[in-house]
Design a protein that fits this description.
This protein is mostly beta strands. The chain is built from no helices and 19 strands.
Length: 231
Amino acid sequence: MLDGEMVLDSTAVLLVWEVPNYPQYYIPIGDISDSVLRATSEIRRSPSRGDAHVFDVLGRKSIIQGGAWHHPDSPLTDIKDHVRFDWQTMDAWFEEDEEVYVHPRDPYTRIDVLDSSRHIRIEINGETVADSSNAKLLFETGLPTRYYLPKTDVRFDLLSATDKSTGCPYKGTARYWTVSAGGILHENVAWGYDTPLPESRGIEGRVAFYNEKVDIFVDGDLLERPTTQFS
């Protein structure tokens, strides 16, 4: 959707993994109105997908320069007749009748939220900042288990809200906190979702900490800090 209008609609979209973590939509050329794309002279080069011809995207009121591209001679034959739009070009994207946020959902990614009475303790620089036996464990494909704790079990006297926010197509929009512990400020190491998406509703109003950056004890055992893109 762009400028309040549906500008493309397709039941034959390809999911293409340009990077390992999530896919992008590639739209069949035949499913895109001629009035949406305006050719430019720009060429973008990709070692894996070949040269791309760049288009401006035309809405009812907007012109998004360089907002779409097409690889007509790609060595990846499946994408030759498809156009890739910059996600930010559109005001909104929909899968069936549900809006999709941030990037296309990965069909190989699963989210599960489970109740747990395990004793979870969060320690930063030797100082306990959270202690709970009422956690929600969130399992997300490719990431370590995240422990979402009730706010009443978190030492909010050590936390201060920041302006940072991030989006996730499976969980929604997260807000962040900086933690003051051991005489040091640990920026944006805690986060939570005030209004998560339906599949992650169980973590609503709770707080999680980066396993990669804090010490997490589960039933008294210190977990090894994982190495991820958030380390």
